């Protein structure tokens, strides 16, 4: 620390002597170093010395006023333009320099008096803070970011300030010396920073580099003058003034430059707005023209698809309802329409003398026009199959399982020709209008739902087939069957029923439902009614895809079935007892069974008849009268077509009766229902063998052998077909 002293002596003290000796005694209250060191050390007439001293003080305060004004001005600029952080840093630097230079004037003693340690702590703290402010200012001004070196220097300065506040004077001096060494490194870093910006063609960096060099020259000069290398007045304060004002000028120049650019923009803004508006109007016109063309394509495509979908079934037992909500809705001229990749169609056909409702619910891959193209292909192919069935006797003679297989193969052949660019998930099905027997094939479509007794459940349990258009099937073609009961409702829908947006995550991404069982809950909430199911779904989320539902109800509003012959069970029990008695004649028993079956033909179908017909067919089979067995099992299947065992036995007895082709047809029908029933595969292969179709027999036998090569019937049939025929 230091203090400025001015002592005056009487003028007559020098009378009578040419030499005046002054002794200055320095006193220290602790182990401090003492020294007299000041370039302004003067001895002379009091009025001259005092005048020189106060002139220097006035000059110092004039410089301080300039620094303070520049600093406060830039702080004011920052308060108005918070994004320009360099104004804040430069303003704080100038204000800090103002206080620091104030500490170098004699006036500081009026503030701190003899509190030297407090004064020193304050002075050193200001000095430590100036370095980081200057480094951070240059990094913000030149690169619009905070330099990591500058931030590290700021942390170092903060530590120095804390130590200076609490440490004794000797430690303060050591911290000052360390800080001065670091400051020299920071000056080099600032110089590098400015030079790098200059090489990057930053015009402001050129002026900063010039001002920084002038400041370094002034500082070098004063250091040399302090150590007596040269004998000239100190000029650092003036060089620093030029440096500060130079930076202020550069900042002002940047501000003016930006202001001029804004004025120029304002002057040309109207023309630019008009030009840009014209460009936008032209672009909008082009977009509108393209949109009209696109909507026209959408509309024409929707016109093509519309007649291919819909409900064309008229039945007293089967009620079919449709719900179609395509995602893409559009307006073309005066028409409002929608287009998408979903399609539902239902038609009435006749197979093997029975009426069926044939239906399809498909979802083609792609959005808007691409999906609509797939739906169009599906609609055309399905409509063609329906028309061919309604006009062709050969098609009408098919079993439901075979008809569905034909549909599947035709659709697969069509879609596979697109080489993977068009895929289709779908459910193809038939419903027997008389018995409610449901036959369907699911090609990677959402599972069908059964709504029975106010409870919804999935009919299916897993994936059996891939989408149409994929060359490799997930499994062997299988026709799934289910006997619907009066009041049952089956609901089939596209994946739009599950892909519901149920919320948005913190990042703004959509949250899509992934729980397929949610749809079961919506079906129960909607009591199986399509409009209410839709309301329940929309109450839980937003549709994100095409949404279609197909509802099939069997005898929904029909009265409760009445037993057409309450005495039928009693009659059968009496007949059965008679047949099992030892006195029964075989021929007479067969005649009675045939008569009983004949009497049942006139009765309407009733559920209690299943067990009676099944037992009658079993007794007929034991009679070894194949024709009677054929009649009995045919009667059972006519009323209850879901009896797979009856289907197998009917095929078997037809084979025994020599009707190999018909037996094979029934075996193929059962094979489509159950691919793993070995006894049916063996019987079917034997039917083809007897019919002379050895190639088909070998194929079916190989399937049976893959399932159970140890089966006795498989081995027996292998022995009837030569080895070279099997290989």
The CATH class designation of the largest domain is Alpha Beta
Tally of contiguous helical segments: 23
- State the domain count: 3
CATH architectural group of the largest domain: 4-Layer Sandwich
**Main sheet attributes: strand count, strand direction, barrel closure:** 6 strands, mixed
CATH fold title of the largest domain: Phosphatase 2c, domain 1
The CATH superfamily of the largest domain is known as PPM-type phosphatase domain
Backbone structural class: alpha+beta
| End-to-end CA span | 112 Å
Number of strands: 16
Shape: rod-shaped
Uncertain runs are none
Proportion in β-strands: 5-15%
Radius of gyration: 51 Å
- Indicate the mean pLDDT: 84
**Can you give the helix content as a percent range?**
55-70%
Placed side by side, the strands forming the largest sheet appear as: 1-5-6-7-8-11
Summarize the structure.
This protein is of the alpha+beta class and 727 residues long. The protein contains 23 helices and 16 strands.
